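Help needed: design a sequence for this.
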């Protein structure tokens, strides 16, 4: 993979730089991710926290997931883009929205989850992608 990879919000002040290899690349069809991303499904990459550098200002919004986990969403206070989030416990990884990399060559997801919430016209295709409800 290109190293490091850089994600940013639309206005460009909130920047997340990721180096090395990610631990997970996934697509999620759950309703919370649909709301978060504004799209009918969300795609995100997780990197170990020590491989991530965040610069710029973000505001945090916290949601409690069905699992009881606390999900901390970080978005740009200027342009509103949701760039990254993390779940606690398990704060060892930072999840970054793949769209924020603005890179059509970004590697394909490894997992497609919450497929029971998948819009019927959405199909996630590719070699070796693991699908689950
Ligand atoms: Zn911004
Ligand atoms: Zn989700």
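Sure. Designed sequence:
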């Amino acid at each position: 993979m290109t190293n490091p990879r850089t994600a940013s919000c639309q206005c460009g002040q909130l920047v997340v730089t990721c180096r090395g290899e990610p631990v997970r690349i996934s697509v999620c069809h759950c309703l919370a991710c649909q709301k978060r991303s504004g799209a009918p499904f969300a795609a995100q990459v997780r990197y170990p926290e020590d491989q991530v550098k965040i610069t710029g200002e973000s505001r945090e919004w916290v949601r409690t997931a069905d699992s009881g986990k606390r999900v901390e969403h970080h978005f740009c206070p200027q342009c509103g883009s949701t760039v990254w989030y993390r779940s606690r416990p398990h704060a060892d990884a930072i999840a970054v929205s793949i769209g924020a990399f603005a890179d059509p060559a970004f590697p394909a997801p490894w997992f497609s989850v919450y497929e029971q919430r998948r819009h019927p016209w959405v199909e996630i295709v590719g070699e070796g992608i693991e699908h689950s409800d």
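The helical segments are 31-37.
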